[in-house]
Fold:
Amino acid sequence: MTLEDYRSDMEMCCRCSYCKFIPLERVEGFQHVNVCPSISRYNFHAYAGGGRMGVGVAMLEKRLEYTDKLLEVVHNCQMCGACDISCKYAMDMEVLEPINEIRIKCVEDGHTVPALDSVVNSLRKQGTMVPGAKAKREDWAEGLEVKDFTKQMTKVIYHTGCRTCYDKDMWKVARATINLLQKAGGDVGIAGENESCCGGRAYQMGYREDFLRQAKQNMELFTKSGAEILVTGCADCYHAFKVLYDKFGLKGDLEVLHTTEYLDRLIQEGKLKPTRQVAMTVTYHDPCHLGRLGEPYIHWEGEKVPGQIRVFAPPKEFRRGTYGVYEPPRDILKSIPGLKLVEMSRIKEYAWCCGAGGGVKETNPEFAKWTAKERINEAESTGAEAIVTACPGCEQNFNNAVRENGNSLKVYDVVELLEKAISKGGH
Amino acid sequence: MIGDELAKLVGAGNVSQEQTTLDEYSKDMSFVNTIMPECVVKPRNAGDIDKIVNLARETLTPLVPVSSGPPHFHGATVPGIGGAVIVDLSGMKKIIRIDRLNRVAMFEPGVTFDELIPAVEKEGLRLNMPLLPRKSKSVTGSLLEREPVIMPKYHWDIADPLACVEVIFGTGDMFRTGAAAGPGTIEEQWAAGGAQKEAAGPSSASWYRVIQGAQGTMGIVTWASVRCEILPRLEEPFLVGSSQLDKIMELVHWLVRLRLVNECFILNNTNLAAILAKRWPDDYRDIKDTLPTWVLFFNIAGYEYLPEERVSGQIQDVIDIAQRVGVEPVPAIGRVSASDLLTAVRRPSREPYWKLRYKGVCHDIFFLTIYDKLPGLIGAMYDMADEAGYPASDMGVYLQPIVQGVNCHCEFNLFYDPKNPRESDQVRELSISSTKSLIGRGAFFSRPYGESARMIINRDAATAAALKKVKAIVDPSNIMNPGKLCF
Amino acid sequence: MALEKVIYRALEDVLGPENISDDPVILDSYAWRSGLVATPVKFVPRFEAITLPKDTQQVQAIVKLCNQYKIQFKASSTGWGGYCDPNGPGVIKIDLRRMNRIIEINEKNMYAVVEPYVIFAQLQAELMKRGLNCNITGAGSNCSALPIAAHQGIGHLSQSGSYGERNLLAVEWVAPDGEIIRLGSLGSLSEWFCGDGPGPSLRGVIRGNTVPLGGLGVYTKAAAKVYHWPGPSTFPIKGVSPHYHPSEIPPGFMIRYFSFKSADEMTEALRKVGESEIGFILMGFNTAMVAGNKATNNNEDLELLKQFTKEVQGPGFLLIIAGNSPNDFEYKKRALQQIIDETNGKSLAAVEDPQNAGGYIWRFIRVTGSIRETCRATGCFGGEVGGTDVFGLMRAYIARSSKIKQDYIDKGLLHADGTHPFVQSIEHGHQGHGELLVRYFPNNPESAKAGMELFMAANQIAIEGHFGVPAHVWSDAIHDMYGPYACNYTKWLRKIKKTFDPNTTAEASSHITAKE
Structure:
């Protein structure tokens, strides 16, 4: 697909501003109505989903040149998809796809930003999106007895992800995951040093070819392992494997699950029993790429039916965030004795982004922090002691924000809390 | 001579320069200065008015429109400068149309409430009236003055129930406001199904709002249309008495908010006694002595569909609310029955006009405010009356929730003997000083009259400047009632 | 024409560099055409710069600078309609996005004060917590809650909650010459409860049944009358987008869509509902809108339209009853039943079905379905928009215009969504409003032309048929079609424009200019 292929979508934008707000049926007060961090921070319409539609068409119509400002507007967006979901409450049009295509077009036309070039260079050279990382990819698993699926067949692959591998603060989550999966009797393997980036964030940043290269390489590895299930604790990776790989016809029959989906399944099957008290009031943050963007990809090929109304043959089903992964993480939290879950105002398909995605953490760390701070404030307003989420990117960004602002809010991964609730015996 | 010119236009029988006649228009019951008009002209129709205004424009003759019969109370119909011509519209008495389907009536400016009420009643309609207007009060005059009305439920906007007007501006141009502007003549609009009901417009200005409250300084209205309501099939009126105004206002808030009642207003015992007393002074004293300080009157009504069920359900709801508030609606208090009061307020005041019965004349101080500020303002007024030596027990108070409860008209009625200079001076000074003080406490004098008008308007310099700009549009020669408001 | 550096710097001094831009990327995002009456022309003229003031003082400063440097400005809040756009060069945009506070909600006196970028969803949600509600403009709760922002401000609640012109109380207005005028009690007392006086009301100058669409300055704050809300403090909504529905229908609420064998019977039913004062929301939606409102995609929209068209017996209206008490609710239901029996009304099963009823109720109260009913099908909608005199007049006007619509549908130039009018009742039937909505693919020049031809034909019908000055009348050209037939109202509008905008600083392509 190219940006031109999304022209008819972009041209459907009627300027209603739905993209700036949470779905309006859900508004319960004055606060927490905004859903797009980009326009919330920068205020000019260009930063909203609808504004980006206009910019996209303007690019196709050759009204705009590649300038620093264009790249700044294009990349000051976490690619969180909230605009897409809010728009699709009412409209039959893609929003996030053309926003992504704009980035791809910029890259293909040779217009990139240095901060992202640096990240992608690291990907090309070392298969990681964390340039300059001191640790080795396998270091988090030190001391753990876990299969290397590049050497042995395995049923379940656990993909750790760049953000976890190269951040010591996140290792506890990966280790807890392995611990729980093994307690449940699962046949799980990791790639260790052979693990390579899923490529998802590279795609979001506009580097499609780099993503495809990573995808093909990874799928070769996964296929060789005989794995039926791939589990990952990173929402970006989850989205990459489940949605993007499928979009490009690379996923095959591999079942992709987030750790929360898999662990929830294990709890339902009685293979994990949370019995220990974890007395805490928490609120859950839906990671964008697990929640609203985590629903399966829908393959469609067809054409608009000639006529006035925008319908297609065959009928086109739009991904509207309806089938994202919202309940499994919540079910896990609700299964933990003593844990009280209170919800924020912006949740599920209309959750406020953590701020880290879409390359923003790299190109504009101040904006990433600002976005996280908004979310931290929202979490604190619930009275919760902790914000719990299911993605290392979110956790890192929240931790940074909490540290910088001196908040007392704690940050946890769902897996951490589940591990606390599982007795030493495991069942 | 202007009188001669006018006689050529409208006929000599419709122009008067008789001294006794001029005397009558040179002053009124207010404290404004006596200024003798040049003559009085009585137009017969809109065509006459058009000619009068155009002549006045050419000769720069001030015009003072008057639509009600005497007595007048606020000074707006007394010339502000010498050489003025009184345009007395009280003889224009055509009721042009009553439209039951669209609940609207159209009539000329001389039509009084006394004349219009039976006419609309024949069609099953009623007016949202002010409280007991005098018999000679013009409906158009009342609408243009933006007088408060006694059914807040049907008072959606402060301009209600006025719909459209036809006006001759001070420029001599004829204009029709709202839906009446056109396209088409009024008759053509009727044929198409129009009813001259939408007051706003045409398009992005609502000229009727600029004409209302203008005291005749923008133009002369030749007809008005008024929104009507339907006559109820069943009614149950009630009274609530209390020495505690806050409880009454709490109840009032809910009665209006939940649209439970039609007529709804509060009077103090002085006013209520003054309205109902037939024999003076005994009746007045007897009635007043049986009443608590404050009396709320409200009326519950049912219409075409299941009126009994509607009324009984609403009565129950009202009782529930009243119990929560701690008051009790009853059909009578002392010598006052709710149904007698309802009968009274459905019509203009009996003669003599109720405000004149007590002492001969009454000076009104009225403004808009909100519920929270009422007790403070009322308390302050009582204090100021005391300080001025005006017996507070003689002061009438009338509280009228308007605009469906968004604000409240608060009126103090200062009864006094016009033949007693001490009383007259006392009331005059009290009026000026209390107006200043009440403004400082949150009273909004949205309808400023008389001596205080200029002071009230000029406090808001930006509004005054804007109003002058508007005036310059429709009356650049300043012939329309000069000297009024800030003009 | 780029903005001269000296002007840009002066604006930057007022706003700070983050809050002004003349970069083409920013400008083009505003220049993308609106979905309202769209044509194949994809981009309107660019603004010279976009400004983002944070308060009234900054707005005034911008306006004064425009006067000083002889450039024009156009303010907007959410910026949906094409009337937010300039007609040519030399105009800067005042984007009021940063002015987004609710200033006050006065529960006792039932009014709310907002800045322009508070959207209706926010205001309604806060009001509901306090047992109050507001009329939301029919375009949707994504629009500004200022009762002088939207084109008209008529909405779903207008049956019991009136509309913008009449709900407006005090206003803070930055006039085109830079003067700040605070209307009514605001100017005299700094209170918001009254927009009229002292003396004549300046509310008459700043809007009529339509607003000046950017051509008469900037409204920086306004108070609106609000109404009682008999429902819960938050509506119990469940589900995931786009399939929201309440977990239960709150007590005291009922919704029906009634169709009638003839327009006369419908009108009679509507009159009786109004006179008995039982309607909370009463909207003369046609089946296309009822279908569109529920459908979550265009395919479903077409299926439902087909289904509903078969099931209705003629034109109809949607009615929501809300009881302020159990007594009230019972009375209203019984009175309604009698009225419907007398007028042979038929309830549309899909709306009455408890599975759907709750979702419909909430979408109509929160006004979230308008985009589904208008822009989803083709990306654009147009048509004509009648005035607000009485229901019978509006019905007759729209019925006549509908015949032209059918011709264009038959030619394949407009989306085939029927020709039943969309009419609504205001203030328990005291007044009415009517619209004829058309939807067409805007990139098809023939369709866009058809939309324009229908619009112009509707204007001819309004003039020849004496149907009033419709609300869609804006711009010099269309105003001048009507002026000579409607008391030369254009002369007086122009005088207001010239008086309050002596330097022609407020861009008035969607309003009226002061030309002689």
DSSP finds 20 helices and 20 strands in chain C.
